[in-house]
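Lab meeting, item 3. Inverse folding demo.
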């Protein structure tokens, strides 16, 4: 519980980590709700096509938007829970300290790649917002709306990576201080 944790002697980084983990959990619930939305939309589309010879005409577009938002909204929680794909063969063969260094390097590399991706996607997002660009489909969806969720999820993931880097640095410093 946060209130119990805040009265204990924890570092500010640990408290930020706790808050980021909770927000990541909420975002993963949002991603789960998007899965339910996709299931419902696909089911409605099947019924409309099979029994009424019609369609919503936006299935591929809206499910595509939901899929993109779902992936990026759940990314931070997936990373926090260590559910991303890893090659554990090499990882298990090295010491805990080497694993920690590898995790730190991996988080820094992911953050660098994520910053590049965020910059590119943010430029597209702002252009679509500024010029009012819409999809070419029947719905003419303003493209900045689905992109907003992708940008928010990726931005939160970058913050999660920053907190991870700070946690690894803190653990390394504490380990070095305890050895002295």
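The presenter then showed the designed sequence:
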């Amino acid at each position: 519980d946060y209130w119990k944790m805040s009265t204990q002697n924890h570092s500010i980084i640990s408290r930020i980590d706790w808050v980021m983990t909770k927000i990541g959990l909420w975002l993963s619930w949002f991603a789960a709700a998007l899965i339910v939305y996709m299931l419902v939309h696909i089911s409605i589309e099947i019924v409309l096509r099979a029994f009424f010879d019609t369609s919503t005409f936006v299935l591929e577009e809206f499910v595509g938007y939901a899929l993109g938002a779902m992936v990026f909204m759940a990314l931070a929680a997936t990373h926090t829970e260590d559910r991303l794909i890893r090659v554990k063969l090499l990882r298990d063969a090295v010491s805990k300290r080497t694993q920690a260094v590898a995790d730190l390097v991996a988080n820094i590399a992911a953050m660098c790649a994520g910053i590049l991706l965020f910059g590119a996607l943010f430029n597209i997002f702002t252009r679509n917002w500024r010029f009012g660009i819409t999809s070419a489909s029947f719905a003419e969806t303003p493209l900045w709306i689905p992109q907003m969720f992708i940008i928010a999820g990726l931005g939160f993931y970058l913050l999660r990576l920053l907190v991870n880097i700070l946690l690894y640095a803190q653990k390394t410093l504490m380990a070095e201080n305890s050895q002295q």
